[in-house]
């Protein structure tokens, strides 16, 4: 089993930055790919960024050039660096992981493991 615990959310003004972290516990060797999703008010959950075990990344068009996903395998931690934040980035952000290689790069919420989320609020 795998447990994911997010942290780093908070409230910032537009133009500001935040770095989210996702600590991974359990059978970490089983994970092939990880991702960040978000669920904003009145919106459907959407994929933000993904990374696979080879470090290949995928980003949603809405965050390209502003967000950066990375992982520290020694610390079993996934990160999301968010810069130039906009009010429309306000959402609950979730970390996700999956052992299947076919899921790698997907921004669809088909991942097997999910965290509880961390709230990001961006004010104008």
Describe the structure.
The structure is a single chain. The protein is 0% helix and 52% strand. With 124 residues, the chain is an all-beta fold. The strands form two sheets. Strands 2, 4, 5, 6, 9, 10 and 11 form a seven-stranded mixed β-sheet that branches. A hairpin with a 4-residue loop joins strand 5 and strand 6. The N and C termini lie far apart (40 Å).
The low-confidence runs, each spanning 5 or more residues with pLDDT under 50, are none
Counting DSSP E segments of at least 2 residues, the number of strands comes to 11
Distance between the termini: 40 Å
Structural class of the secondary elements? mainly beta
Give the CA-based shape. globular
From the alpha-carbon coordinates, what is the Rg to the nearest angstrom?
13 Å
Residues in helices, as a percent range? under 10%
Task: Tell me the number of helical segments per DSSP (H or I, 4 or more residues long).
Answer: 0
What structural keywords apply?
single chain; mainly beta; 7-stranded mixed beta sheet; 11 strands; 52% strand
Task: Set down the secondary structure blueprint.
Layout lengths: L1 E6 L2 E4 L4 E9 L6 E7 L6 E7 L4 E3 L7 E6 L4 E6 L8 E8 L14 E2 L3 E6 L1
């Amino acid at each position: 089993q795998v447990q994911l615990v997010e942290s780093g959310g908070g409230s910032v003004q537009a133009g500001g930055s935040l770095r989210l972290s996702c600590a991974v516990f359990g059978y970490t060797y089983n994970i092939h790919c990880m991702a960040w999703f978000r669920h904003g008010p009145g919106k459907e959950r959407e994929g933000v960024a993904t990374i696979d075990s080879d470090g290949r990344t995928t980003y949603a068009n809405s965050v390209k050039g502003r967000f950066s996903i990375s992982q520290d395998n020694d610390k079993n931690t996934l990160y999301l660096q968010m810069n130039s934040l906009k009010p429309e980035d306000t959402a609950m952000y979730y970390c996700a992981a999956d052992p299947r290689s076919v899921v790698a790069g997907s921004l669809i919420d088909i991942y097997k493991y999910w965290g509880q989320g961390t709230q990001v609020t961006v004010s104008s």
